[in-house]
Structures are given as structure tokens and as C-alpha cells.
Amino acid sequence: MLFALDPLPPANLLAARDQMAVTLGFHIILACLGVAFPTLLLIANWRAIRYRDADALRLARRWTRIIAVTFAVGAVSGTILSFEMGLLWPGLMGRFGAAYGIPFAIEGIFFFLEAIFIAIYIYGWDRLSPWTHFLSGIPIAVAGFGGTFSVVTANAWMNQPAGFTLGADGQVTDVQPLGVIFNNATWYEAGHMFLAAYMVTGFLLASTYAVGHLRGRMDRYTRLGFMIPFVVAAIATPLQIGMGDIAARAVFNDQPAKFAAMELVQTTGPNTPVVLGGILVHGKVVGGLTIPGLGSLLAGFNTDTVVRGLDQVPVADQPPVDVVHIAWDTMLSAGFGLLALAAWFGLTWLRRRELPTSRWFYRFAAAAGVAAVVALEAGWVVTEVGRQPWVVYGLLRTSDAVTRAPGTLISFVAVMVIYVILGTATLLVLRAMSRQGGPETARDDVPYGPSQ
Amino acid sequence: MSRPDVVAGVLWLGVTIYAVLGGADFGAGLWDLLAGDAQRGEAPRDLIDASIGPVWEANHTWLIFDLVILWSAFPLAFASLMSTLFVPLTLAAFGIILRGSGFVFRKYTRRLARRRAFGATFALSSVITPFFLGAALGGIASGRVPAGNAAGDPLTSWLNPTSLLVGALAVAAGAYVAAVFLVAAAHRRGNADLERYFRRRALAMGIVAGGLSILGIVVLGADAPSLSAGLTGRALPLVAASIALGSASLVLLAHGTVRWIRPVAAGAVSAIVWGWGVAQFPAILPGALTIDAAAAPAGTLDALIVISIAAAVTIGPSLAVLFILDGRSRLEAGH
Fold first, then answer.
1. Distances in Å between the alpha carbon of A115 and those of A81, A334, A433, B238?
2. Environment class of residue B309 by beta-carbon count within 10 Å: exposed (0-12), middle (13-18) or buried (19+)?
3. What is the pLDDT of residues A281-295, one digit of tens each?
4. How far apart are CA A278 and CA A272, in angstroms?
5. Min Cα–Cα distance to chain A from B33, Å
6. What pLDDT score was predicted for residue B329?
7. Under an 8 A CB cutoff, do B76 and A117 touch?
8. Which CATH number fits domain B3-303: 2.60.40, 2.70.70, 1.10.150, 1.20.1630?
9. Torsions phi, psi of B130, nearest 5?
10. How much is the CA Rg of chain A, to the nearest whole Å?
11. Which residues of A touch B111 (CB under 8 A)?
12. Beta-strand (E) ranges in A277-324?
């Protein structure tokens, strides 16, 4: 066996996991923008053409410029992840690349199409006829959907590996590509991620216009800039909570250790409570609000449902319980907070056909972008940390997948430095763009026009 | 041809396209770096910006395509080379992220000081990235990457004569193709000054690349004898084609001709990439792994062949549209 276990440099596992966490945690936000932002842009673009709406046109032009920046940063930060697959996890790729790699190959096509049509769309302003230009944007949104599906398929496969046969030496001997792609976790993970992309993008974008509103910009341009993304995110939110409920029940069946960590379930049995907040100290739940029986009820629609606890999971196979539980509660808090905000908006709209007027609504809306990102990151921690200590659930431990190369610690520190600078620069550039030349200087908004 | 060979062929095609198009985008960064201060460098930088702006992300995607084909079809080779070549490939990855973000940040920034900083980041990383990618390839081609998790030497696998040569050649070849593309771009815009500007640079870089290739004969002969034997044996027709096309492109440049110059220069680079592949065939990691030994099971390879056909059918026409629209806009903008 080529990737057998020889002594592991002790710092490697921690450094590699942290580097992966930083780079993926950064990229996942940009990936969400890459998936959902084009749809919001197309809604504005469609309104602009269909109703000759000058405000919508200005929004569409402005959003195009933002997408040009976020897509480029997303493209390169995604490439780093491809490198890291081999740089940090050669044990994973060497053993399972033949199966695990397939969804990425499909994702490659979608990403390629996205890159091509984003370029055509960006460049097509003022050069293509309005409807042709609009149509050139459709493949971007479609590719975003396909890309999410295929890349999340790969993550789902890590949680529910399928579609291959292992030989006696542990190598993959036979691969059924459709089995890899349509594994147990594909549907609920992909659906959950896709809706998350729309929530994150919608609430983030809307929050910038909510800030504008609080600063006294109440014109139609600002209102429309708020409405389009907020409505999309508000529709996605209840769907997402339903989807998350399905996903949690699937995790209860598919990955009992992850579920036990999420809900801080210590002992196996019926009538399992839900603990809101709280941590484990010496195997006892400390703090938090305990709601008796709710865990069993949610998992199996009946308080008699037996939930497997950590007592049935060998200590060596347990994920970091507190991290998973706190991340889980954080995601839920942020998610239900956003649901309340969406309901506030929805009820006001149903009654009065107008936006809420309360400043408090806009204060919460201004925080909604950050809340959505927090929910995204926390949910991702639940999935990834909850799968530990496995990188391929039940088959390959993360510690056996990590590189034996010296220098991971240096590389991690360098990544931290680069990403702090990159993140700061991205925000600075986006902020400067939002300040320079308001919507009235539409001519300057032409991307790829001659630079000054 | 066996299934693994077919997929290896697809991979090599992807590597070739990335070497030409991705290489040219990096090369444009080198010319950006050498364009001088903000005032003197404005015109060439604007041309570079306009030329690579709409296409660099699509060109860059060939690298991702190559990586996913490599890790799915030849997982052992991927894992072995990424872990042994940890240092140069980590540096190349850093270069990639700095190049892309530096470029796009400069484009959308107006303050001169920030534009300078972003521009310098873009330009410097455009030189660093192809160098380290080339150095990594040099380590593979000279048989310094054994099979296994970081089984090779973490330093000499890429700090060796062949790696330094291939790294330098990758930078020079990219800069050469970039200058040739920019000659054509300036010509289409009817900008005779810039055409002359990049023609001079293309000629100079062509001579540098040619010189490095001649030096390469000596270096590879001493440092990588089996690669050298392959290049002068089985792969000789391709090496000869590369020399012929390279010389032809220099003649065309010296003549002031623009027609055919881009395909001829791209052909010179493509021929040497295929020459390398043929020279080390059937090895994927020379001295360690053959294409067959590294290949994934048939189910994976079949899926990758289907995916590659799907890619050709969808990406091919889309790219054609992009390049055609891009070409037209330059005509319009040429006032």
C-alpha cells in the first residue's frame, strides 16, 4: 500500500486542517455569491428591459461590477482549494481520487461555462442588444446551480461514501460513477447549500442597501436595491429551514455520531431532550436550556424515538462535540432570526403592499448579511467538524489523509497572512467601488471600457 | 489505444492549452512588470488589460480542468507529485491567488497608489507562478518524484538544474507568446506604436527562449539523461517541429507580418509540450509510475471520457463565442 502510515509530523494534521478551514471558509462566501448573485443581477436586468426601469438598469450595471470582482477572487480562491486537495490531503486523493474526483470533473465543466458566460455578460454591456445580453446571463445562473450540485456531491460523498469497491489493499478497485454522484447525502446537502447561497447573497446585498436606508437614502434606487435581494432571500429562508429539518433527520439516520454531537446526546434512549446552548464538562451538560423529549420528537416524530448517544460511539471516533453543538445552535439561532425578519417583511407586504417603515426593521436587515454568513459558516462547521475524525466517513481518518511533507505550519502561517490581506483588500476595493461615482455616472460603470 | 492512454491524451491536451493561453496571460504580466513608471507604461498596460481582461478567467480554468482530470484519472500520480512538490506548488498556488486578485483589483480601483500596489502584485506573481509550475514539471520530468505521500526530497525535487531550466523556460515562453499576442492585438487596433513596441519585445524574448532551449540540451543531457534520450529519440520530430515553428515565428516577427503569427508561436509551445509527453511515454511519473499503473478503474476513466466529450460540446462553442466577441470589441475600440 503506497499511502501506508509512516510517522506523521505532529504539527501537520492541525496545520493542514486549519489551512483548509481558513481557505474553504473564505471561499465558501465567494462561492455563494458566484452561485446566487447572477440570478439577482438577472432579475434587475430583466426589470430594466421589460419595464424600461432606469433604476433597475443602474443596479444591474453596478452589480455587474461587483460580480466581476467577487467572481475573480472566488475563481482563484477556489483554485487554491484544488491545489490543497493534493498539497494537504494526498492520502485522501491517492486512495479515493478515482471515486471522489468524479464530481469535481463535472463541476469543472460548470465552472468553465460560468467563467465564459460571466465574461461574455460583463463585456456584453452596450455591445450586445439588451435581450441578447440578458440571455447571455442565463447560462451563468444555470451553471451556478450545476456547479453547486456537483461540488456538494463531492462533500456529500465524504459523508456518505458510495459507488466503489475496495480491494484487499484498501485501494479503490471498481467505480460506479452514478453511485458516487447520487450518494445518500447528495440531495439534502446540495439542496441545503443551494438555498444557503441564495440566503447569503440576498441578505448580504440587501444589508448594504439597508445601511443606505438608515443613512437617509430613501430613493427608489435604494429601495429597489434592497427589495430584489431581500425578497429572494426571504423566500429562500423558510424553504431552507424545511430543507435543514430534512437534512438533520437524514444525519440522524446516516451519521449518528454527528447527530449526537449536534444535540449533545450523551446516553442512548427515547425521550431525548434538545439542549439549547450549554457545553459538556466531564461528560455532563453544563448550562443551556433543556427541552425534554424534543430531540426524539424531531428525529422520529415521536418522543419514543430512540436516539443513539455518544455512549455508543468509541471515544476515538467522536467528533469534537462542543464545537459541533455550538456551531449547530449558532446556525439555528441565525436561521430562525432571519426567518423572523423574513416574516416581518412578508406580513407587512401582505397587509400594506409596501416595505416596513420601522427603523428597527432596517437595523435588523443591516445585520442580516452578517447573520447569514454566520449561519453559513456554522452550518459548514457542523458538517465538516461533525464528520471528524473521518475524512471519508467510516473509511479513512483525516490523520491518515494528511500530507507527510514538512512545511505545513509555515504554509499555514503564510496562508493566514495572505488571506487577511486578501480579505481586507477585497472589502476595500468593494467599498471604494460603492463610493466612487454614484449611479448617475452610469457611463463609468461600463466594465472593460478603457481604463483611465 | 487503451483507456488510460486516451484520458492521458485528454489531460495532455488540457496541459497544452493551459501552457499556451494561461502561459500567455502570465507572460502579459511580465510585460506589465517591465512597462516602466505609470506614465510610460500606461499605453502598454492598457493594451494588456484590455487583452487579457475578458479571457484570463476562462484561460485559467484549463488549470482546474487539468487538476481534476489528473486527480480522478491518475490519483496516485496526483497525490505523489503534489506532496513531494509541496513547496513549489504551494508557492505557485499563492502566485495564482495574488495574480488574479491583483489584476481584478487594479482594474476596479482608481486611486493611483492602490493601483500601483495591486498592479505590482499582479505583475510579480505573474512571473513567480509559471516559474514554480515549470520547476515542478522539471522535477517530474527528470524523475525526481517517487510514488507515495511526500516520498521524494522536499527540496532537490524542484531545486535542481532541470527544474530551474524548465521554470525559466516557462516564464520565457509565456512572455514570448504574450508579446506575439499583444503584437496582434495592437495591430487589430491599428496602433502602430504599440505593435512596434511589442514586436521588439517578442523578438528579444524569442531569442531568450531559444537560448534557454539550447542551454537545455546541455542541462538535460547531464541532469536528466532518460528525458534527454526521449527528446532526441522518439520525440525528435516534435522537438524539430517546435524549433521550426519557433524560428518561423521569429522570421514572421522580423518581417513585420501579423497573419499566422499567433498560431505559429502557439504551435512552437504546443509541440514542445507534446514532445515532453512523448519523450516520457508511457511514464506519468518517470522512474516511478506508468500511465497504466497510476490509472483509476475503468468506471472512472469511462466517466471522464464522457465528461470530456460533454466539455468539448459545451465549452468549445461557448469559448468560440467569447473569443469572437472579444475580437470584435477590440476592432470597435481601436480608435
1. 17, 32, 22, 33
2. exposed
3. 877 888 888 898 898
4. 15
5. 18
6. 60
7. no
8. 1.20.1630
9. -65, -30
10. 23
11. 432
12. 279-281, 284-286, 289-291
Chain B contact for A303, CB < 8 A?
Answer: no
Contacts of B312 (CB under 8 A, 6+ apart): none
Residue A320 within a domain: no
Q: Which amino acid is present at B331?
A: L
For cell 443596479, the residue is A59
Which pLDDT band holds residue A10 (cuts at 50, 70, 90)? low
Is A373 among the domain residues? yes
| Nearest C-alpha neighbor of A259 from the set A296, A229, A222, A224 | A296
Question: What pTM does this model have?
Answer: 0.92
Distances in whole angstroms, Cα of residue B215 to Cα of each of A159, A253, A451, B201: 51, 64, 41, 21
- Radius of gyration of chain B from Cα atoms? 20
Within a domain: A452: no
Q: Give tens-digit pLDDT for B71-128.
A: 999 999 999 999 999 999 999 999 999 999 999 999 999 888 899 999 999 999 999 9
pLDDT at B334: 35
Give the Cα separation of A16 and A77 in Å (integer): 16
CA distance A65 to A435: 13
Q: Which residue of B104, B149, B299 is in closest CB contact with A94? A: B149
d(CA B248, CA B80): 39
A48: CB partners within 8 A, 6+ apart: A54, A56, A57, A59, A60, A130
DSSP string, A146-164: HHHHHHHHHHHHHHS--SE
Helix H segments across chain B?
3-17, 23-33, 42-52, 56-73, 75-84, 86-107, 112-141, 161-188, 192-223, 225-232, 236-255, 261-280, 291-294, 298-332
CA-nearest of B214, B221, B287, B280 to B247 is: B214
Could you give the number of structural domains in chain A?
Answer: 1
Task: In whole angstroms, give the CA distance from residue A275 to residue A129.
Answer: 57
Please identify which residue in the block is written with the cell numbers 457545553: A279
Nearest residue to B152 (alpha-carbon basis) of B84, B204, B105: B84
Do B71 and A104 make contact, defined as CB atoms within 8 angstroms?
A: yes
Cell of B209: 527562449
Using the beta-carbon criterion (under 8 Å), do B71 and A123 form an inter-chain contact? Answer: no
pLDDT digits (tens, 9 = 90+) for A200-232: 999 999 999 999 999 988 899 999 999 999 999
Interchain CB distance below 8 Å, A418 and B325: no
What span, in angstroms and rounded, lies between the C-alpha atoms of A450 and A452? 6
Measured between alpha carbons, how far is A334 from A196 in angstroms, rounded to an integer?
A: 12
Residue A165's pLDDT band (cuts 50, 70, 90): very high
Range of the domain at A61: 10-246+325-445
A208 touches A369 (CB < 8 A):
yes
Please report whether residue A295 resides in a domain: no
